[in-house]
Amino acid sequence: MRVFVLSVLVVAATAVLAVPATSYAQSKVAVIRIQEAIARCNDGQAAAKTLREKFGPKQQDLERQQREINELQNQLRNQEKTLSDEARNRLLRSIDEKTRALTRANEDAQAEAQQAEQDAVSEIGRKMMSIITEHSKGQGYSLVVDVSSPQTPVLYADSSLDITEKVIELYNAAGAKTGSAAPSSGAAPSGGAPPAASQSPAAKPPAATTPKAAESAAKP
Fold first, then answer.
1. What is the pTM assigned to this prediction?
2. Is it the case that residue 151 has pLDDT exceeding 80?
């Protein structure tokens, strides 16, 4: 790994030395944390609120279903020695059916939340790209690099090159002029975190419990 990194640095250094000094004098570079900009702009925050309001009740319903399953599992565990075979099998079937229903409901909620989030991010991102392009041309930037991801191949960038705050300011100002409403379908996550599937409001379901597995779990 050291050899590879060293080779990259050597190539990069060679490339830098090969570029005429006049090219640097004529070029301006900026960086932006685009995911943070989308999440923190007015539209992003409003869309995040919409997403929470839309999927909050579904989250609560999933939690209710999980509690019902937990109660049945506790009942099976506590009454294992006194239940008849018929009653035990009936309880096991109920646990299995409810677990499968919860798994399906959770998968549907996650898919819907992710799609809503992607739609909102795409809409805000499209409008923000226009702001970035206009601002960059006005400031004479030759290159704007997104450094949102830790995997971004940028080892160092001076804070003076960061235009994230300025883009958020320009985006909000443009929205105020046009009176544009925030996307209602979903939202970028708050706090500048990248949108991820794991951040959807749906709770992670338990693994489907077969009657045999539930019966084994009930035994001490």
1. 0.63
2. yes
